[in-house]
Structures
1.
Amino acid sequence: MKILKDWYTFSHASKLIGKNRNYFVNRYRINPDIFKEECLLEVDGIKFINKEGIEFLQQRIKKVAVLINNAVFIED
């Protein structure tokens, strides 16, 4: 089993970045594929994420938001 140093519950990780406690839970529920497998750990049904995973997701989510905001929508 991995040592849990530098691993955070989704709730704690959300608070670390100044978001509401369900931030990572909701992101995982909506799109689990954006999470790097090596950055996740589950113990007794509780999901943990490490610091690298938190940083990766913050960058990934920002990039997706920029792409959506820059998209041009054309109505028929």
2.
Amino acid sequence: MHPLLAVALIATAQPAPAWLAGDWEPYSNAFIGLHMLSVQGNNTLSWKDCSNASFEVVDTSDNSVTIHLAKNSRCTLDDAPPTRMDTVRFTLRDNHCDLGVAVYASPDAAKRNEPSAEGLYGKSRCPSGPASQAAANLSTTTR
């Protein structure tokens, strides 16, 4: 790759929206085993056994962002055998406290809207209710 092209690609990398940054607690049973989701402002996230996994933003709107995890990331679902997380769509709910999460095993699965798992995360400082109550009311299982 030509050095100037590489610099241009880096310079045009789209940052994740500010609302995505921070720590998110799992509310849905599908994600309880994955524990806390932490999204850093430098387009990295930590989730269960994957720490500081890089991602690129592939699509964004006012309340939704779709990311593609780096090929070397070790992020997997808590199923058997473990499904590698490839593409993840985050959708911020109107209350700005709850985050719909859909995990896809491939970009093609995301295009077909066929998630491997989907559910809800929330900010701990928000009045959405305790995670155990939300998990019971908003449970979504892995597919």
3.
Amino acid sequence: MADAMKESRLPKWAQAELASLRVRLENAEEERDELREGILGEPGTDTVLDPYGSAPINLPKGGTIEFRIGYGQEDIVRVRVTDEGLNINGNVGIAVLPKATNDVVIGVRRD
């Protein structure tokens, strides 16, 4: 409310410029969302990259995410959603280290 009062005191050209910038911002946000949806997956997918970030990215449903971990990052762990749950596989042995009832760490094993 205070911002609107301050804005109403500005010259008409400045008020018009602010209104134009708001419209351009709204259009840019809509275009960004459409591009993200069209290029980076449908809403409602089961695979989302950076879900807590400011711009989560929807990946294709059932998409596989590959992680390179370990010394030199030569060990690969792949994760994807299946009808049975999460499928996790890698190019070496996988170690599942429970941290809590709802938290585990996935590592690699070289025996």
